[in-house]
Amino acid sequence: MTTTGDHRVLFDVDKDKRIATITLNNPAQRNAYDAAMRDLLARCLDRVAEDDDLTVVLLRGSGGVFSAGADMNNAYGWYGQSGSGAPTGSGERRPSQRRRLTVDRKTFGFYHDLMGFPKVTVGEITGYALGGGFEIALMTDISVIARDARIGMPATRFLGPALGSLHMFFHRLGPVLARRLLLTGDVIRAGDVEHLGVFTETCAPTAVPARARYWAEKAAKMPADGVVIAKEAFRLVEQGQAYQGEEVTSYLIHAYGTNLQFAPGEFNFVKTRARYGTKEAFRLRDEHFHVAEPDPDGP
């Protein structure tokens, strides 16, 4: 495995098998990524897209975790600001709406390019696939996930469901599951939705690496030009059936959502993080949103 100048993303090529492997390598933070790390991932994908000798890219995470999504240690760092971005004590202004739109358009451009990637993408998903990590997992063409992997969009508890690629959630998850995850911020186990066929294969955690490699090698046997043609055909069908206008809608809603107002009693992650730190903010978030679940079969 070779580095890319930033040890947090590893890139390796098996020319004989026609497979590239990209590994998110930030295990101390469950392979959460910041803007620089995501941009490096995008550059690795570009290398695969431009290499005629490669047909498949295998996306994985180190340390038994796929990705916990965007790094929230600096909530406004994504918008080019240091610190928490909270107005109290920082002396910094909140990001302007034009800044939010510019950054979010770039972010959703990354997801758009991944969904339309011209080579086969295979996801090796273990541990956690949350937030942006969940989006990436759903966007892969072939996905192998551990039954005990935790999946979901807990970041909706920061901003409400105005976050993420809404069109993709409804298309890949179906409207019922999409609404459940986006309106509650629930994190669930992949095995709980195995029957829905959201992922290509759901299996034991220890089997995931070998099974993902199997699917990668299987797809790599296909004619490379045929794969590219098929991927463009898939993209055309999806654009026609599910994504008309939704690409723009997603980043607009996200950008505006990051500037929402919080009513008394609602949980404000950015201010809580500025006051107590990231780890405690996550604990307080989960405590705020916890509701004891009654027995569905009654008392």
Would you mind describing this structure in some detail?
The protein is α/β, with parallel strands linked by helices. The protein has a single domain, classed as 2-enoyl-CoA Hydratase, Chain A, domain 1. Helices cover about 40% and strands about 15% of the residues. The protein has eleven helices and ten strands. A seven-stranded mixed sheet has the order 1-2-3-4-5-7-10, sandwiched between helices. A three-stranded mixed sheet has the order 6-8-9. α1 links the parallel β3 and β4. The relative contact order is 0.13. About 5% of the residues have low confidence.
TL;DR?
The chain is an alpha/beta fold and 299 residues long. Helix content is 42%, strand content 14%. Helix 2 (97-115) packs antiparallel against helix 9 (246-257) and helix 10 crosses helix 11 (278-289).
Estimate percent helicity. Answer: 40-55%
Q: Tell me the β content.
A: 5-15%
Radius of gyration: 19 Å
Ends apart, CA distance between termini? 55 Å
CATH architecture, please? Alpha-Beta Complex
Uncertain stretches: 83-90
Main β-sheet: number of strands, strand sense, barrel status? 7 strands, mixed
Number of domains: 1
Q: Which CATH class applies here?
A: Alpha Beta
Compute the number of helices: 11
Any idea of the CATH topology? 2-enoyl-CoA Hydratase, Chain A, domain 1
* Helical/strand content category: alpha/beta
Report the strand count.
10
- Shape designation: globular
Largest beta sheet: what is the strand line-up?
1-2-3-4-5-7-10
